[in-house]
Write a structure and sequence with these properties.
Elements: H1 3-17, H2 33-42, H3 47-59, H4 65-80, H5 91-98, H6 128-131, H7 141-145, H8 169-176, H9 183-187, E1 193-196, E2 211-226, E3 231-239, E4 244-250, E5 264-274, E6 277-281, E7 284-287, H10 290-294, E8 298-301, H11 310-324, H12 334-340, H13 345-353, H14 358-388, H15 399-408, H16 415-428, E9 435-440, H17 446-458, E10 463-467, H18 471-485, E11 500-503, H19 509-521, E12 526-529, E13 543-548, H20 556-563, E14 570-575, H21 581-586, E15 592-596, E16 607-610, H22 616-628, E17 632-636, H23 651-662, E18 668-671, H24 677-688, E19 694-697, E20 710-716, H25 723-730, E21 741-745, H26 755-762, H27 766-777, H28 780-783, H29 801-817, H30 827-837
Parallel strand pairs: 4-6, 9-14, 9-15, 10-12, 10-13, 11-12, 13-14, 16-21, 17-19, 17-20, 18-19, 20-21
Antiparallel strand pairs: 1-8, 2-3, 2-5, 3-4, 5-6, 5-7
Length: about 850
């Protein structure tokens, strides 16, 4: 008999001698579970038995005396018969656990199992009860069989990691830095990559372009300087008996001391070529033990932090997965799994942490990724449905009125602009609040479209608010709306200029109060501002349209707050960052989307060129010639000040050098993010007014700055920026009618062949660049302020359009059938959805 069962028998004998008074263990029999359970698991007591005894001990205190006695008698009979196989007389215990006459105390759902280190190798197959998935035809799975639970997540998974043998307070702090605080966190801490030791490729069979994992022994380690000492190169040569491979890392000098001769390492990356020899540049790597090599399996590689080793973390996660994954009840309805062609949750978690082969690994990743995208789609679909159920005020205008607005403009609108205005008219007369995203490339003319929407609203005496992220952009909008919506504008019709006001932080207090009073009594019809519009004293008489520019700069709460200042007002959000289709379906899935991908007549493409750092003087010469022709220039740097490495040019230091050594006869301004808002606004006003010939800047000029006289922009260390950001920066020039230029200089010569820089020279189309940027750098540049729900994406890729469209179709179908997820088969899904969104409503726009 296993020691854990011997211990259990002794406790039950003591309890019987105390007349079943729950005194066999100090504090009651439930107290022994956290010590007994791991021992029983490690000693391979059958899992069905362990679960039954665990639930019985946890519920013991709430049972009547006769029920306590019956349960102990059943267990003792089994023990006395030698404890062979499963529990021979399980029915008395199961009857007690499910009996309605013995109410639950809540302890049954707060089981506190302890996952201990198992003597079994992390690579070895676990016993059948560990890996057998919960049958799909048993909705309750193991949980429902043991106490009638309906929640997918057993309460024990919320236990802290200190319940694991060997994890004390200090180790738990280290694990917490990885976001690992509970047993459930271990299950959903996915590998960042895999080492496939089942199909290792020898070095002599590598080909240029291969994406592979290679194992070899370190033969040599060296480092050298390049490019006048500014670039440090560490080179390591490994050999696997079939050939040698050179590994190279740039500006990571500490790596020279991390590699040791004759040490076996695993490296993963893309095989490149240099001077006819195969190399790997900046591969991921780790030391390899003989045990890992001998497994011939696919081993997961997890993100680490200081004082947490790969082997220890891998063992913890695999032990937790073996025991807990089969006990999770799948939240996804079987009908959705069938249509989507997905495996069940238990198998997915087991295979993602300990894959049998690449096919099963891909199926696991597909299932887990689908869950995340599906939850996102349910959230935004639910939000869109809720918004559409609200009532919105109807605003109608005739075709003749629209034609009159077009004819009064001093320029012709593009077809794309007219189509968006058509969309907005339909929204405003639908009787439902407009909830539309207008995404238009740099210079596509979004402002005039917004102005016409504002005129439709205000012609009936209601109010509109336009919110911009910066004061300088708010002032720019103020001038545009004053020109287009007042009686001083085209056609001489419109509002009195006093009915259009600007409210920013620099607005004098007396004027602020006047504006607030005008909004309350309804005299002011249009207000343009920054975050100042969100202040509590700002109250509208009848806000019917909220326009939010560069909307990704505002958080969900800020947008909701502005919207709450009216009764279901119409909402138009605008962005100059082109959004790839896959992101439009997720990030802005609750919005109707209009796209403007056509530039107004007269706008010229910006001539873009990549220069080597040694050609910097050519860039300076072109800037001088543009200034001499009466134009202005931007010079952009990635940093405000030099860092400790000194390997990247910075705006503050370069401003002084440029003014003194390169452009001594010109006037140079300086702007960066560390300046106060009013200081930044002052510099921009001076540049716009022509007080500076050249503006030296960081990326604070990325959005919304309109300087028609600027004809050239030089971007230093351009290889450090994403395509979306480079495109936005390029859009600061070419806003007038003169030929404009964008010059890109990387921070070292080797980066001049950078894919992003080449793409910038190939096209001015922001939508093409956005797709490439998403593929190369992921969605970070598009998300702006982190949105609710996106922090939960651990497996899904927002570039997988096929998966996103499939999830959206199924989410919309489910919402049409059961919007509140009240049907029995959807109740576990509803619980999982609330956990994913943290109780939010899915308002991500």
């Amino acid at each position: 008999m296993q020691p854990s069962l011997e211990h259990l028998k002794k406790v039950l004998i003591i309890e019987s001698s105390h007349s079943f008074a729950d005194e066999g263990v100090i504090g009651g029999l439930a107290k022994m579970v956290d010590h007994w359970l791991p021992d029983a698991i490690n000693q391979q007591v059958p899992h069905q038995t362990v679960d039954l005894i665990r639930d019985y001990l946890l519920k013991y205190h709430d049972l009547h005396l006769e029920d306590r006695a019956r349960g102990i008698q059943a267990i003792m009979q089994w023990l006395d018969l030698g404890a062979q196989g499963e529990l021979i007389i399980p029915m008395p215990i199961q009857t007690l656990l499910n009996s309605p006459s013995t109410p639950e105390s809540g302890k049954g759902d707060s089981d506190i199992p302890v996952i201990q280190d198992n003597k079994q190798s992390s690579d070895q197959k676990s016993p059948e009860p560990h890996t057998k998935p919960v049958p799909q035809d048993q909705p309750g799975g193991a949980a429902s069989q043991l106490g009638g639970k309906t929640n997918k997540v057993p309460g024990a998974l919320k236990s802290p990691l200190t319940v694991i043998n060997g994890v004390g307070p200090k180790n738990s702090e280290n694990l917490a830095r990885l976001g690992l605080r509970t047993l459930e966190d271990l299950l959903y801490y996915f590998p960042r990559r895999y080492d496939d030791y089942s199909q290792l490729k020898p070095i002599h069979k590598l080909w240029f372009g291969d994406q592979v994992t290679v194992v070899g022994v370190v033969q040599s380690v060296s480092s050298r300087k390049a490019h006048s000492g500014k670039l440090n190169i560490v080179e390591v040569i490994i050999n696997d008996g079939s050939g040698a491979l050179r590994l190279t890392w740039f500006n990571q000098p500490w790596l020279e001391n991390r590699f040791h001769i004759k040490e076996t390492v695993s490296v993963s990356g893309k095989v490149d070529q240099y001077l006819g020899r195969l190399v790997m540049n900046s591969p991921e790597w780790e030391t390899v033990d003989v045990e890992s090599l001998s497994t011939n399996r696919i081993l997961p590689v997890y993100p680490l932090t200081a004082h947490v080793t790969q082997k220890r973390l891998r063992d913890m996660i695999q032990e937790a997965t073996r025991y807990w994954a089969p006990r999770l009840v799948d939240h996804m309805p079987g009908s959705i799994l069938s249509v989507a062609g997905l495996i069940n949750l238990a198998d997915a978690l087991i295979q993602v942490h300990n894959p049998d082969d690449q096919t099963k690994l891909q199926a696991a990743r597909q299932r887990l990724a689908f869950d995340e995208i599906f939850f996102l789609q349910l959230g935004v679909t639910r939000q869109k449905r809720n918004w559409q159920e609200a009532r919105g005020r109807v605003f109608q205008v005739t075709d003749d009125w629209i034609d009159e607005q077009f004819s009064n403009l001093p320029y012709l609108l593009t077809t794309a602009q007219k189509n968006v205005i058509k969309d907005i008219r339909a929204d405003l007369q639908s009787g439902k609040p407009m909830n539309r995203l207008l995404q238009g490339d740099v210079g596509s003319g979004k402002t005039i479209v917004a102005a016409i929407a504002v005129k439709i609203i205000t012609r009936e005496g209601t109010q509109a608010a336009i919110m911009a992220p910066t004061s300088i952009l708010a002032e720019q909008h103020y001038r545009n709306f004053l020109e287009n919506c007042s009686n001083q504008g085209p056609g001489g019709k419109g509002l009195d200029p006093a009915q259009i006001r600007l409210l920013i932080s620099d607005t004098p207090e007396v004027e602020k109060q006047d504006i607030k009073n005008g909004l309350i009594n309804g005299i002011i019809k249009i207000v343009i501002g920054t975050h100042a519009l969100l202040e509590e004293p700002v109250v509208f008489k009848e806000l019917q349209l909220a326009v939010i520019d560069e909307q990704h700069r505002f958080g969900v709460e800020q947008r909701s707050l502005l919207r709450s200042k009216g009764t279901n007002p119409h909402l138009l959000v605008m962005t100059a960052t082109p959004i790839p289709r896959s992101l439009a379906l997720t990030i802005y899935g609750d919005l109707d989307i209009s796209v403007m991908d056509e530039l107004p007549a007269g706008r010229q493409e910006i001539s873009t060129h990549v220069l080597f750092p040694t050609e910097r003087e050519r860039a300076y010469s072109l800037i001088r010639s543009q200034v001499e022709a009466g134009h202005q220039a931007f010079i952009v740097y990635p940093l405000v000040e030099e860092n400790d490495k000194g390997d990247v040019l910075a705006a503050t230091q370069e401003h002084g050098r440029l003014q003194k050594e390169v452009f001594p006869r010109l006037k140079l301004g300086l702007i960066h993010g560390r300046l106060k808002p009013d200081e930044k606004d002052q510099v921009m006003r001076q540049f716009r007014n022509g007080d500076y010939n050249i503006l030296v800047s960081t990326t604070v000029v990325e959005v919304g700055v309109d300087i028609p006289n600027a004809s050239i922009i030089l971007i230093e260390a351009a290889n450090r920026f994403g395509l979306a950001q480079l495109h936005q920066l390029r859009g600061r020039v070419g806003r007038g009618d003169v030929k404009s230029y964008c010059l890109l200089i990387p921070d070292h010569e080797d980066a001049a062949e950078n894919e992003r820089l080449a793409a910038m020279c190939e096209t001015n189309d922001g939508f093409i660049l956005a797709e490439r940027d998403l593929q190369q750098r992921g969605p970070g540049d598009f998300l702006g302020t982190r949105q609710a729900g996106y922090a939960n994406l651990r497996m899904a890729s927002l570039t997988d359009v096929h998966l996103i469209e499939k999830a959206r179709m199924l989410a919309e179908d489910l919402m049409n059938r059961d919007a509140d997820l009240k049907d029995q088969e959807n109740q576990l899904l509803a619980e999982a959805l609330e956990r994913f969104w943290g109780g939010g409503k899915g308002d991500v726009s």
